[in-house]
Design goal:
Blueprint: E1 7-12, H1 20-33, E2 37-41, H2 45-50, E3 53-56, H3 83-95, E4 100-105, H4 107-120, E5 124-128, H5 144-165, E6 167-173, H6 180-188, E7 193-195, H7 203-215, E8 221-226, H8 235-245, E9 250-255, H9 267-285, E10 291-296, E11 299-304, H10 305-310, H11 317-326
Parallel strand pairs: 1-2, 1-4, 4-5, 5-10, 6-8, 6-9, 7-8
Antiparallel strand pairs: 2-3, 10-11
The structure holds adenosine-5'-diphosphate.
């Protein structure tokens, strides 16, 4: 046991994700279990620069496990990109006698954490919290499962109206660089086609496929498109192209947007966040630092932070195949 760690700081950074609160709760309570104090840092790295810090105890995190968003607030902090900003952050750490940091966030937050760690030789542990599931070293990030369920719910509703009016709906979901949300919700919601950043389907092929479906008797269809799909066109341009070429369909676009980030975390995300939080604190207690916690085959594992940042999370190609077969 590392007796040098007497106080752990915890922050949430970057894009918020449902389940971040469960992770904060887990960190605060596990720290208390090991007789370590917990300091909440507000608004991500900005709170370190502004000295926006509050001591927590197990009761401070009552009734938050079921809440979306993050009670610690999150922020994108430009100042932390500069050595001067990080120096200010370190001064806050020293002033508040914080001995280690748990960073709940995505790729960007981990990059900042790693630079900070190397500049000041300061122990950090990352917990992956992002709805995009685009982080190497974990099969699931906190918030991803909830986002999938939110999207499925929305597409089911869109399907009801699509069927009633013979409409072709293009639904844009989040995922600038990763198609996990689009691919999984597309299959789960029975989409006709799924466009993702990892595969280049091309507009012509999309048109051919939709025309085939129309001929086979489909009167309405749903196409799920990730924000960053490879066609180089946005969802409205794609819809316009298809509408021009398929005059029998009424085409509509629905951009789901930020609602995908919100809502009560699913049970899966709450359990995942709780397990990851326990592992994060126990790693620091066990003198293991500069790792990211992750999930692999239902085990909570550690991946060196630099590997987690540099590694690429890849889509499951079998899902592409399944989608192709079932959209017949
Ligand atoms: P996410 O963690 O969800 O990927 P961002 O990419 O916005 O979100 O990163 C969150 C924050 O992490 C940034 O606002 C910044 O404070 C910090 N950060 C990101 N990249 C760096 C970097 N290269 N150097 C220092 N800090 C960084």
């Amino acid at each position: 046991m590392n007796n040098l760690i007497k106080r752990i700081g915890v922050l949430t950074s970057g894009g918020d994700a449902p389940g971040m609160n469960a992770a904060v709760r887990g960190v605060v309570r596990t720290a208390a279990y090991y007789k370590i104090e917990a300091a909440a840092i507000f608004k991500g790295y900005q709170g370190l620069i502004d000295n926006d810090i509050k001591m927590m105890n197990p009761r401070s995190v009552n009734n938050i496990i079921n809440k979306g968003g993050t009670i610690l607030k999150s922020a994108r902090c430009l100042e932390f990109h500069s050595p001067e900003g990080r120096k200010k952050a370190y001064e806050t750490i020293v002033k508040n006698e914080i001995d280690a940091l748990v960073v709940i966030g995505g790729d960007g937050s981990f990059t900042g954490a790693m630079i900070f760690q190397s500049e000041f030789d300061f122990p950090v542990i990352g917990i992956p919290g992002t709805i995009d599931n685009d982080i190497f070293g974990t099969s699931h990030t906190i918030g991803y499962d909830t986002a999938l369920n939110t999207v499925i719910d929305a597409i089911d509703k869109i399907r009801d109206t699509a069927i009633s009016h013979n409409r072709l709906f293009f639904v844009e979901v989040m995922g600038r660089d990763a198609g996990h949300i689009a691919l999984n919700t597309g299959i789960g919601a029975g989409a006709e086609e799924i466009l993702i950043p990892e595969e280049n389907m091309g507009l012509k092929r999309l048109l051919e496929s939709l025309s085939r479906s129309e001929k086979s008797g489909k009167s309405s269809s749903i196409v799920v498109i990730a924000e960053g799909d490879k066609t180089g066109k946005n969802v409205f341009q794609i819809a316009e192209y298809i509408e021009k070429n398929m005059p029998n369909y009424e085409v509509r676009v629905s951009v789901l947007g930020h609602m995908q980030r919100g809502g009560r975390p699913s049970c899966f995300d709450r359990v995942l966040a709780s397990r990851m939080a326990v592992k994060a604190v126990e790693s620091l207690v066990g003198d293991k630092t500069n790792f990211m916690v992750g999930l692999k085959e239902d085990e909570i594992i550690l991946t060196p932070l630099d590997k987690a940042i540099k590694g690429k999370s890849s889509i499951n190609k079998d899902l592409v195949r399944v989608s192709d077969i079932l959209s017949l």
